[in-house]
Amino acid sequence: MSIDENKDVVRRFLARFANGDADGLIGSLTDDATWWIGGKPAELPQAGQKSKEGISAVLRGIGTKIPGGIDMRIRGMIGEGDKVAAEVEAHGEITNGRTYNNEYHFLFTVRDGLISSVREYHDTLHLKSVFAA
To answer: What is the pLDDT tens value at each position of the chain, 133 positions in all?
Structure first.
């Protein structure tokens, strides 16, 4: 696939967050996909390396906490080969009444029109403090 096609895969993937489309997000991953989230797993259970099955639970959990979806606004994107890097600002209203507004850097690997790996960097303190009861 071309770099522009890979970027389109990532754009469609991130758009699914706004719709709360966990099934679409999971369906956009290869069967052997991995997803790494920055942070210390002892302090942030979502952190660390996850398989497709492991990240599926996280993605489905987001929908219960942010039923209106997360607006993932792409601020910048660059691609090279099968890699796409994206700077993203996320915004959503949480069921606890707080507003989630975080900044991300993602590194995606695209294979055959699906995402085969994700590396996710974000403000873990904001995530933890906003989602805490």
So the answer is: 999 999 999 999 999 999 889 999 999 999 999 999 999 998 888 899 999 999 999 899 888 899 899 999 999 999 999 999 999 999 999 999 999 999 999 999 999 999 999 999 999 899 888 887 5
Beta-sheet strands, E only, within the chain: 29-37, 48-51, 71-80, 83-93, 99-111, 114-122
For residue 121, give the CATH number of its domain.
3.10.450.50
Dist CA 111 CA 23 (whole Å): 19
pTM: 0.93
Label residues 48-57 b or e (16+ Cβ within 10 Å = b).
eebebeebbe
Domain count, the chain: 1
What domain range is 94 assigned to?
3-131
